[in-house]
Design a protein that fits this description.
CATH superfamily of the largest domain: P-loop containing nucleotide triphosphate hydrolases
Strand content: 5-15%
Shape: elongated
CATH class of the largest domain: Alpha Beta
Helix content: 40-55%
Number of strands: 5
Structural class: alpha/beta
Length: about 375
């Protein structure tokens, strides 16, 4: 393993394998087929924009494309045997014809930078110049392209306007609208979709995931990456606490609410920010409550007694509209609170009290 691989990695979910370690692209057969067809028909564009919900396999697809193209494998599904020399070098980040651009580690602080900088893109340009003499394909993966600052984006645009010969750029983008329109227009887009339940199960099977995979999948909206993040932060326990709290309505249990608020105020760690986790799961809970009033409680359950609680909270279309409105207001309140550095515990407690006073809350 290279020294670079030993450093903190901005494109890895903490505690789980990096996308380059995943050998199979699951649930995105249409995107795989589109790229393979383009490569075989000599219509391969020099830059591809891989978009879609976070955690659905965009980075996994980018690494699979790189291995497949550089190894010369002829498979229909981008698979390459693990003992292939190129596959081993890609895994070790030592393949000379492959360059990875991601948020780098700041040498002074030892922390991952907040953005991809212009220096990162300049190193990409140097890679294309230095590797040109070797001939054949050269591949660059930018993960994630929507994390570039303005100077980096402008530098990348110049490369896209005059692409090096035999170069392939793979841009992973969770929020492609944040990219310059001129960058998007110079890329061919591969859009990945949310994974079906069976694909979620297949993708999570080889991973050492703590927690019920069915419940994680129910909360993750077809995103393996999101399921892994929830597992790493014990998200199922937090969601269970939310369900248990709303089971106490209409008389909100203030002790339980205070415990949840205190959990949100814990110090952020390597796994993520507890405040963001609590707000995200509250948002998911309210979305599922709104859905329950329109279509019945979603299955499978993401927590014990969830269906019973949601059915009581949201028995009809009128209730569903109320919870949908509350969901939007909660998200806006969380953003405003974060912007002015309000105390996380006080902010969450205020949200919970407000939700307990919703017109649609059932009578005792």
């Amino acid at each position: 393993m290279s020294a670079e691989a030993a450093l903190p990695e901005a494109d890895r979910v903490p505690g789980f394998p990096h996308p380059r370690e995943t050998r199979r692209v699951v649930g995105q057969d249409h995107a795989v087929a589109e790229f393979v067809d383009a490569a075989r028909s000599h219509r391969m564009h020099h830059a591809w924009l891989l978009t879609g919900p976070r955690g659905t396999g965009k980075a996994t697809l980018a690494w699979a494309i790189a291995r497949w193209l550089l190894s010369g494998a002829g498979s229909d599904d981008l698979s390459v045997t693990p003992d292939d020399p190129v596959a081993r070098r890609v895994l070790a980040l030592s393949e000379p014809r492959l360059h990875l651009v991601r948020r780098a580690v700041d040498e002074k602080t030892g922390r991952i930078r907040a953005e991809i900088t212009v220096d990162d893109i300049r190193r990409l340009l140097s890679f294309f110049h230095m590797s040109a003499a070797e001939g054949g394909h050269r591949v660059a993966i930018i993960d994630a392209a929507d994390e570039m600052n303005v100077s980096a984006a402008n530098a990348l645009l110049k490369i896209l306007e005059e692409p090096p010969r035999d170069a392939l750029l793979l841009l992973v983008a969770h929020q492609p609208d944040r990219l310059l329109p001129t960058i998007r227009s110079r890329c061919r887009t591969l859009r990945l979709s949310e994974l079906a339940p069976e694909d979620m199960a297949a993708a999570m099977a080889p991973l050492a995931v703590q927690g019920d995979p069915t419940r994680l999948a129910a909360l993750a909206h077809g995103s393996v990456g999101e399921a892994l993040r929830l597992a790493g932060q014990d998200g199922l326990s937090v969601y269970q606490a939310i369900v248990d709290l709303f089971a106490t309505l209409p008389r909100l249990d203030r002790r339980q609410a205070a415990a949840l608020a205190d959990a949100a105020a814990a110090r952020p760690g390597a796994d993520g920010d507890p405040f963001d986790l609590v707000v995200t799961l509250l948002d998911r809970f309210l979305a599922r409550a709104a859905r329950a009033g329109l279509m019945g409680a979603p299955l499978p359950e993401a927590a014990r007694a969830e269906a019973e609680v949601l059915t009581r909270m949201s028995p009809d279309e009128r209730s569903a509209r109320g919870w949908a409105t509350a969901q939007a207001e909660l998200s806006a309140r969380a953003r405003r609170g974060r912007a002015v550095n309000l105390d996380p515990a006080a902010l969450v407690m205020d949200m919970l009290v407000t939700l307990a006073q919703q017109p649609g809350v059932p009578e005792a």
